[in-house]
Amino acid sequence: MKLQKIRSSRTQMPLALVVLGAATALLSASANAAELSLKGKRIGVAVVGTQHFWDREAFNGAVDKVKQLGGTVVPVDGGRDNQVHADNHDVLLANKVDAVISILGDGAVESKFQALKKANIPIFTVDHLSPLAINNTTSDNYYMGTTIARFQADSIGGKGKVAVFNAFEGALRICGIRVGLWKYVLQDYPNITVLKPELAEEFANSPEDARKKTLDLLSKHPKGSIDAIHVGCWDQPAIGVVQALKEAHRTEIKVTALDAGPDTLKIMAEPGSPFVGNVAQQPRKIGSTAANNVARYFAGETLLPQTFVDVIPVNGAEQAKAVYKQLGYGILK
What we know:
Number of helices: 11
Number of domains: 2
Strand content: 15-25%
CATH topology of the largest domain: Rossmann fold
Strand order of the largest sheet: 2-1-3-4-5-11
CATH superfamily of the largest domain: Response regulator
CATH class of the largest domain: Alpha Beta
CATH architecture of the largest domain: 3-Layer(aba) Sandwich
Distance between the termini: 63 Å
């Protein structure tokens, strides 16, 4: 009996300490979160454009979070022109902002980042890796690429011919990761062939551009000679791909893509839709997280080079409906 009491007291004591420690940690974390502030700070938010849902949501997420934390936003919009987006950083430099959140863009921004850094203005990026940035907030692009490859392979039973829209693999790092890992996974499916040449979508009016190119592709590949079409970096072209498949009565061809905004989730949720696989990003949360990281930096915290925001796999119509609701877009029946 005495031995049992001793054992009981020895097991209870650490448990009590663990509970106390956990409670202390939670209170500390809550206190730190409450202390985060951008009051008195002017934060530049530069976005490459706001025409596309993802870009607009990331921008709005950053803007809203800066305001929530008490900061003043200095917004600039590149109108989907990478050079205008880059030059907008000169505007932020001239405005002597306290920090910059730069959303997307290509290599044209790097010289602008150098000027900002020289002026001791910290840079935080969204979906743009740069050695000059304090932190880059992004989706888990590695997981996106591997997951969509498995979804696509499963949708055609691990064999068949696949066409891919892939204009941006070499131009944008995030696209390179997504497409590169899609190709890497498909190496484990020797009975899947990726058709050459790859198709190159356009950003401007991408659904219509992809519709026309898909119809041309189908004219060269009669029924039974192509099994799937994948859009390698995003999903707006997939809207046009699905339209073309319906026009040509070729909806046996499976479509996959990445981003899963509300418009493409709706298409996936349609009965018998050929659009079978996607991975949803959370662009508003990404922008908000980037702004929060600015506040953490000014609070003296050390940030990791990258902050990864979770993505949500979408495999089939029922998951499309569930994710549509989960992300707050409404309810699909």
